[in-house]
Amino acid sequence: MEVPRRDRGETLAAFAAADDPAAFLRALAPQTAEYAALLREKEGLEALIERGGWGAPVASAAALKPGMEGAAVLALRDRLIRMGYLPMRASARYDAALQRAVQRFQANQGLTPDGIAGRETLDRIDTPATERLKQVIVALERLRWLNKPLGQRHIMVNQAAFQMKIVEDGATIFESDVIVGMENEKWRTPEFSKNMDHMIVNPTWHVPSSIVARDYLPKLLANPEAASYMRFYDASGRQVSRSSIDFSQFSASNFPYSLKQPPSDDNALGLVKFMLPNRWNIYLHDTPSKHLFSKDKRAFSSGCVRVQRPFELAYELLSKQTSDPRGTFHRALDSGRETRIDIVDPVPVHLTYRTAFADARGRVHYREDTYGRDGRIFAALAAAGVTVPGAES
User: Fold this and answer.
1) 206 is a catalytic site residue
2) Could you tell me which CATH number the domain at 71-127 has?
3) 9, 72, 295, 318: which has the fewest C-beta neighbours closer than 10 Å?
4) Residues 223-251 pLDDT 10s
5) Which CATH superfamily is domain 129-203+269-393 in?
């Protein structure tokens, strides 16, 4: 991500000329409600750590469920009380109140709120306050990277939360779950900001050569009739009959054909893709693999961002340029032909990665560091002198 940098000379000159130097320094930080909420969370966690943190971990190997009793349930109760999810109470039973507290915690963590404290939920509950503080410190650093005009109307994708939203005049007007790149270093979704300037309805999938080598060539070597929906093209762009290709003579290093999947309900891009030209060839798109949205952790793509509610996203984007956004979209869709629809006023898209973030009410949510990026950023901050009280070095 390109980080905005102030001119050092201009900043020092402005500081020297400021009537209130302390106020000038405070104004350099992001002036947003989320930044303020994360600062409050940071201060609260620092005070909590000084008092000893959240207490002993629950440390139970088995799942804890409603109706259960025992030492592990007591530990769970006490931990959730210290974390602010449950009021002080004497009950030693996994009752309805404790179940609701577990559900609130799960929702805050992006987990399915079933009210059962399984292994993943317990692992999150047992995460030390020092680790949460590190996440908040990194999130504040990332917000400083984005301390620039984001656009009166913009799209924000949080890869770590597997979510996207459209923000207009500071308010969220559209939200959708998303799928992002796999954890493998080669397929992780990058972080950047670009303008979305058009959408393609009924898209053709031009299969990247890396995916051809990884996914399709092995199948074709085993069975030349595999992936029957694919079309083959030579270096001049001419379609080549599959029957004329002897796949056995090729490997990933010398396969000369490109693959395309024509528009269809089963197209890997689904029925619409949203384009934001960039050097990584990353974009947002529909997907036929709807079942993957039921997962809590949604890192399954080869880098692009799959959207759970693509039609609704299209309607919202078109609502600013036509009185009939649904009709405009569906006329293109029903044609069955690949159709480009320009976005008259391009929308800034920010592909971010934040494992700690605040909602509109100021409540801070946490997610896993799926790509390990937080760890690298905090290591750099620690090398520059940032410390966390009570954390192991």
Assistant:
1) no
2) 1.10.101.10
3) 9
4) 999 999 999 999 999 999 999 999 999 99
5) L,D-transpeptidase catalytic domain-like (2.40.440.10)
